[in-house]
Write a structure and sequence with these properties.
The complex is a heterodimer of chains A (about 150) and B (about 300). Chain A is of the alpha+beta class and about 150 residues long. Chain A contains 3 helices and 8 strands. Classes of the chains: A alpha+beta (about 150), B alpha/beta (about 300). Chains A and B meet through strand 1, strand 5, strand 6 and strand 7 of A and helix 1, strand 6 and helix 5 of B.
């Protein structure tokens, strides 16, 4: 019996489908959710969500959020989620460089700004790492890297 | 009467204006479509977040409500987030939203502070000496959630620090291309058990109504969800307002184009008359001259 998994971010629906297992980066550690799991609510860390169905596995990066688990459905309210296959490497790399440059210019005047830059840096590092590790279409990866 | 040359210039300039307004109309038409698409994109998250909120708030054995859900007995200050446009030339769009805001809050029972989104709203409220505590303007043409989330965060902070006891959101709801309606919504405290229409009824019945396992504690989870939900409502309001602004501008520009075409027709008619008159005068002159010449030769 499969479990329904729905991943939504604030601006769109990222994934929706029946799956066999979902692995989430919960605050208290990674957790694998199988069908008929007890109701659970958890906040999410930065990390990757793995969604497996039969032999197919899809990987999504997630920059925090909340997940609600019911026996038959998992709802993930993500703050920015992306399928690893769809990440634009060049953009993620540019974002990382921008954030690093800003940090090198010295400490920003206020805490909010600092946290924003740090979050941006963490997001782009997460994206880049996930692509290197999980993207199936390696050819696309090497092609992009050759371009850079 | 103006000279033929002046009129020619006038006709040309009106024609140019009509071309500009026609271009602006086309631009706005495509922007409306994009903004509507963006609004649609936020619906799944809003629906799901609302379901989770209802679930959590409706859990058995909840002793105290979360601060962001608690109605304060003694309301001393209110905060209003007003969404307007950065630019004019959008018909009555900006004035409508400000007039609506003032109707709602000018004689409000408690002092009202404002956060404005959009330059026009800021200017109009400042001119009326309203207490504007923050303004967000120059948002990108297609704002992302990140661009707007600071507004919601600020509202939540003001509320939690006790500086205000109620937060309202005023924006323009996109009804159709021809109709946009200013609306007001209560942002905080969030009313979970109110039977508001925007609430998507939770039809999805789960097999086990058992209590949740919380990780971390339930208040911390609410701490995460409610501010996000608030920010999302602001985001949706901004997108709805954007769609409304572009629709209003489109209609305004279409009217301007129509008026320009009418004006050109009227001017062209007047110009033709002037031209015809000049030609007639010229012919009369020549005919008169020829006549005089003929007469003088006849006398010889």
């Amino acid at each position: 019996m499969p479990i329904r998994c729905e991943i939504v971010s604030q601006d769109r629906e990222v994934f929706s489908g029946d799956v066999d297992i979902v692995v989430l980066p919960g605050v208290a550690g990674e957790m694998g959710i199988l069908p008929n799991h007890a109701p659970l609510l958890t906040t999410l860390n930065f990390g990757v969500i793995k969604v497996r169905r039969g032999e197919d596995e899809e990987i999504f990066t997630v920059a925090g959020g909340v997940a609600e688990v019911q026996p038959d459905v998992i709802t993930i309210l993500a703050d920015a989620a992306e399928n690893v296959e769809d990440i634009d490497l060049a953009r993620a790399e540019a974002a990382r460089q921008r954030a690093e440059e800003m940090l090198e210019e010295g400490p920003p005047p206020d805490m909010d700004r600092y946290l924003a830059i740090e979050a941006a840096l963490r997001r782009s590092n997460l994206r880049l790492g996930a692509v290197r590790r999980y993207r199936k279409d390696k050819k696309r990866l090497s092609h992009r890297e050759a371009e850079e | 009467m103006a000279s033929a040359r002046d009129m020619r210039l006038r006709i040309r300039s009106v024609k140019n204006i009509s071309q500009v307004t026609r271009a602006l109309e086309a631009v706005s038409a495509s922007k409306v479509r994009k903004a509507i698409k963006a609004v649609m994109g936020t619906r799944p998250y809003a629906t799901k977040a609302w379901q989770v909120l209802i679930h959590v708030a409706g859990q058995p054995g909840r002793t105290s409500l979360h601060p962001l859900l608690t109605e304060r007995a003694d309301v001393k200050n209110a905060l209003v987030v007003v969404v307007s446009g950065d630019r004019g030339l959008a018909g009555a769009y900006n004035t409508n939203i400000i007039r609506f805001t003032l109707q709602q809050f000018d004689d409000y029972k408690v002092p009202v502070r404002y956060i404005t989104v959009g330059r026009k709203g800021r200017d109009l409220l400042m001119r009326r000496r309203k207490d504007v505590i923050a303004e967000f303007s120059g948002l990108p043409a297609a704002p992302s959630f990140m661009d707007v989330s600071a507004i919601g965060r600020m509202a939540v902070d003001e509320f939690l620090q006790g500086k205000v006891d109620e937060v309202y959101l005023v924006y323009t709801d996109f009804v159709t291309m021809a109709t946009q309606k200013p609306v007001m919504k209560k942002l905080l405290p969030l009313e979970v058990d109110s039977g508001e229409e925007r609430v998507v009824t939770f039809a999805h019945k789960h097999k086990t109504p058992a209590a949740y396992i919380y990780e971390p504690a339930e208040d911390e989870i609410l701490d995460e969800i409610i501010p996000r939900f608030t920010a999302l409502q602001v985001y949706q309001a901004v997108l709805e307002s954007l769609a409304s602004e572009h629709a209003a501008r489109m209609v305004a520009m279409r009217n301007a184009t129509d008026n320009a075409i009418e004006l050109v027709a009227a001017l062209q008619l007047a110009y033709n008359k002037v031209r015809q008159q000049t030609i007639t005068n010229d012919i009369l002159d020549i005919a008169g001259g020829a006549e005089a010449l003929a007469q003088s030769q006849g006398q010889k």
